[in-house]
Every structure is written in C-alpha cells, then in structure tokens.
UniProtKB/TrEMBL annotation:
GO biological process, one term: rRNA processing
Note describing how the cofactor binds: Binds 1 zinc ion.
Pfam families in the record: YbeY (PF02130)
Lineage: Bacteria, Pseudomonadati, Pseudomonadota, Alphaproteobacteria, Acetobacterales
Keywords associated with the record: Cytoplasm, Endonuclease, Hydrolase, Metal-binding, Nuclease, Ribosome biogenesis, rRNA processing, Zinc
Designated name of the protein: Endoribonuclease YbeY
Subcellular location: Cytoplasm
Listed InterPro entries: MetalPrtase_cat_dom_sf_prd, YbeY
Length: 165
C-alpha cells in the first residue's frame, strides 16, 4: 500500500469516526476490535450519503426508539430513520449490540459478518430499498448478498436462520 493511499485512507477513517459514527456503547470495541477498518471497507463499497449517522448502541436504547417510533416495546437488531427533509439524503442507522450478538450466536455466524450485513441493510434502506413486498425483498436481499460477497462474507440468505430482516 503506497503511503499516499494509506494517508488518504486514514483521512477517511478519521472523518468517518468524527462525523458519521457514534459509539454509544463502548462494548462494541471489544466485540469488533477492527470496527474502524470494517466501517471503512463498508464505506468503500456503499458510500454513505451526506448526513448519515451510524450509531452503535445497545438493546436498551433501541428498545426505547422502537417503542417511540414503531409502537413495539422490544429491541430489534437495527433501526433506520431517513432524513426528515425529503431533499436530503442520509439518515440514522442504530444498531443494538445484545440483539445482534444473540442473533449471531443463534445462527452460528461471526458477529462481524452479521453486523456488516445489518449496516448494508440500513444503508440500502436509506437509498430507498425496502422489503415490504416480495419483489422488493428479493431485490434488497440480492443487493445485500452482492455487497457482502465483495468483502468475502457469505450470503446470509443461504441456509439462514435469520429470516427476513
């Protein structure tokens, strides 16, 4: 890796972690030690729109948000909120540590793989993809699988115990 490329890469990493990423629960660093590098790899495949925030939270935080905005008083793995201004792109992606950890264990998949999948999932929502109808679900799953394959993460929909997100 050339020193110019390395310098550019670190500038992007610094920008992402100062402007885009919120680590609300510090346990994320222990569970995903290369979190910064992972976010950079995701960014290179699916650049974040302006005003996009990734929040690495926990079940307590996401349960409150899920209750407030979806009337579901339970945690979920990821919540995505589009930017309120229709002229702007981006939004917030909030990830729940304990739920993602449990789902990964149950599916016997590395937590890093499941987390990456959920970040791509949230980013695709912010780009207008959805999974409310069968044809939308297939399109979104294919796009997720393609992006994951680019960083050598197996297709989560083959032999999956996750079901649709």
């Amino acid at each position: 890796m050339t020193s110019l490329f390395r310098q550019y890469r670190y500038q992007i990493l610094d920008f992402l972690f100062s402007e885009v990423v919120i680590i609300q629960d510090k346990r994320w660093y222990k569970l995903i030690p290369d979190l910064k590098e992972l976010i950079y790899r995701i960014y290179t495949l699916q650049p974040f729109a302006e005003q996009t925030t990734l929040c690495f939270a926990n079940d307590q935080t996401i349960r409150k948000l899920n209750c407030q905005f979806r009337n579901k008083n339970k945690p979920t793995n990821v919540l995505t909120f589009e930017h309120p201004d229709p002229q702007s792109y981006g939004g917030d992606i909030i990830l729940a540590l304990e739920t993602i950890q449990k789902e990964s264990r149950r599916a016997r998949k590395p937590m890093r793989h499941h987390l990456t999948h959920l970040i791509f999932h949230g980013l695709l929502h912010l780009k207008g993809y959805d999974h409310l109808k069968c044809n939308e679900t297939k399109t979104m799953e294919m796009k997720e699988s393609y992006l994951l394959g680019k960083i050598r993460i197996p297709n989560p929909w083959k032999n999956s115990s996750f079901g649709s997100i």
